């Protein structure tokens, strides 16, 4: 079983939760069990209102470690990109270094 983290803009978090519930996911149970975490992009992708790839990579490494330590077989991350339209970022600046 995997744990999942999704980044959204503020209002989109409610839409993502509703979409998951409508798809048959027990969002409350998955969240309580640590299998699902839906966060604002401000909590991982954006620092001081701008995209910070180093901060995001560090946050994802921490989440991967937490997930594996909790006994999950893997970790998934996704994102709703509505926050991108409010930051003035150019698409190329969003590519994370390998």
Describe the overall structure.
This protein is an alpha/beta fold. Helices cover 37% and strands 22% of the residues. It is built from three helices and five strands. It has helices at residues 10-22, 27-32, 53-69, and strands spanning 2-8, 36-40, 46-47, 50-51, 74-79. The strands form two sheets. A three-stranded parallel beta sheet has the order 2-1-5. A two-stranded antiparallel sheet has the order 3-4. The longest helix is centred in the middle third of the chain and has 17 residues, at 53-69. 17% of the residues are buried. Residues 90-96 have low confidence and may be disordered.
Q: Provide the succession of SSEs.
A: EHHEEEHE
Cα-based radius of gyration, to the nearest Å: 14 Å
For the largest beta-sheet, the strand count, sense and barrel status come to: 3 strands, parallel
Helix residue percentage: 25-40%
Percent range for β-strand residues: 15-25%
Cα(first) to Cα(last) distance is 26 Å
User: SS-based structural class?
Assistant: alpha/beta
Strand order within the widest beta sheet: 2-1-5
- The whole-number mean of residue pLDDT values reads 79
Number of strands: 5
Low-confidence stretches: 90-96
Overall 3D form: flat
Continuous helix count: 3
Show the helix and strand layout.
Blueprint: E1 2-8, H1 10-22, H2 27-32, E2 36-40, E3 46-47, E4 50-51, H3 53-69, E5 74-79
Parallel strand pairs: 1-2, 1-5
Antiparallel strand pairs: 3-4
